[in-house]
Amino acid sequence: MTKRNIFSLFEILFWPVVGFFSVGLLTTFLDLDPNRTGFILIGIISMSVIQVCQIDVAEALLYDLWAKSMKHTFIAPIHPHQLLLGSWIIGVIRSLVVFLLLALFSLFVFDFDFLRPGVFPLSLFLLGLFLTSASVGMTVCILILVFGYKAEVAAWSLSSLMALICGIYYPISILPTPLPEIARGIPLTYFLAYLRSFYGFQEGFQSLLRWGFGLAGFYLIVEVILFRIVLHRAKRTGMILKLSE
Amino acid sequence: MALAIKAEGIYKSFYTGWLKRSEKQVLRGIHLEVEKGEIFGILGPNGAGKTTLLSILSTLLFPDRGQIEILGMDSRREAHRIREKVNLSSGNANFLWSMTVEENLHFYGMLYGLAGHRRNQKVKELISLLGLEEHRGVSFDRLSTGMKQRLALAKSLLNDPSVLFLDEPTVGLDPSVSVWIRQQIQMIQKERGMTILLTTHNMREAERLCDRIAFLKDGRILTAGDPDSLKRMVRLGDLIKIEFEGRVEEDELGRIEGVINYSVTNGLCEVIVDEGERRLGPLITKLSEDGVKIKRVTLGQTDLEEVFLEFSKSSNSDMGLYLQELDHDQAKYL
């Protein structure tokens, strides 16, 4: 689908690389110590991974929205979970490529080693990011089925908003009230804190993975149920047809 | 004959606005029965509810009320199984614009569970069937309207559907492409024996393609039947024009079976009969027997457009009353 779609290539490679170097070079200019540089690089790479993976999940419906071909997808004998799962798997593969690329840049350009925590903790961190992305992507899909074209903007804004609240470049303790409390309800906060803990940063949370995966699982279950409800609603209100005209 | 589609008492309204909700009733108690293997046309003006009805039957839209069975399966409880057996092609086709004809077919083939060699074969077969060979590598946004329509038809045949829904399949196409698409539809239906339910506001298209037709207006089916019986039903009559030499006995004309009305002026005799093709022979024979020299004969048959207009007249007209009488019995027939 993205073979000749230049925008998709930008999403997958251009923006993550540009974003990574912008932030990375800023840390060089500010002459931060290696751990603080790592803190920020973890943030920008996590952001890139989530952006790429969640947009792939959202594209389960976004491409149909843009092409006005929604009805052809929903008349096919495919279950919604197959559609979303397939898109998520593609998203995982692509964002993994982005992660590997940016991790290599981190190592060779900024001398920051992502493998320091070990392969298993890093895999858990990445799994957390992928699940968070699935959750964001599904939220976009749900909003599309409810609000149609108006929800398109959510595909790019939701993950940025979430990153802002979850302390992408800073600890959440510096956020004004009630944002730290809101951050505690978002799994990404715990996954970032988990990986940063290997580099000497402690957010003061306990059971980071348990909270992270627990919340991610909870949101996914809620969103699967919500997706079914809004799909049913879309078939009642004619939204699928409206998005195909 | 087994039924492919059975719909009973289908109602559908759409609502707009959040606080002050306004309701638009689109379908008002549709009864429909379509037999397996027939081409059934839903004919009606824009806004009659054709696309809404088709969308409900193809499981894309839920009705507010009513029961639907497609190939004996309940459309609510067995929607997934129904979707394996049906497909849809609509006019003004839209597909993923950055993908080529071939890629689009592969993509939708995947959604229909086709994989590997089977999918390759199917895509190849459909590209050949719909004459898309030269355009297989062209992206959708660069296709002409006619080619997009061919792709839509190809996509709708990916799963070899038992029931095919065609929503205004020739809308926006130039006449030559429309004719080609109609021929393909007829050929495909003949070869595969599938049931086709098509919507159109093109009366001639319906007349040429469909075994049976239902007139839909304001969310109600006015009547249904095969094109000839519909024409007979409205009794508009066919016009036979005869240019002649000699003398026509006007009283004699009125006694000929099937003659509804007639006029004779200056060598031109105009006779309105119930069925033109059937009455033409006896009429000419009778005039010849009376010594009239026939110079030229033309037969103008009632077309469906006139029939539809008659059926659409207000309920105060005779036809309207006639329809009201028909409503209950025909509901069973439809």
How would you describe this protein?
The complex is a heterodimer of chains A (245) and B (334). By secondary structure, chain A is mainly α. Helices cover 76% and strands 0% of the residues of chain A. Chain A has one domain (6-242). The longest helix of chain A has 34 residues, at 34-67. The two termini of chain A are 21 Å apart. Among the domains of chain B are: 3-97 and 155-227, P-loop containing nucleotide triphosphate hydrolases (Rossmann fold), CATH 3.40.50; 237-301, Alpha-Beta Plaits (2-Layer Sandwich). In chain B, 39% of the residues lie in helices and 29% in strands. In chain B, the strands form 3 sheets. Chain B has a 6-stranded mixed beta sheet with strand order 6-7-8-3-9-10, with helices on both faces. Chain B is globular.
CATH domain class name of the domain at 3-97 and 155-227 in chain B: Alpha Beta
Distance between the termini of chain B: 14 Å
Number of helices of chain A: 10
Number of strands of chain B: 14
Please, how many domains of chain A? Answer: 1
Task: Please list the strands of the largest sheet of chain B in the order they lie side by side.
Answer: 6-7-8-3-9-10
| CATH topology annotation of the domain at 3-97 and 155-227 in chain B | Rossmann fold
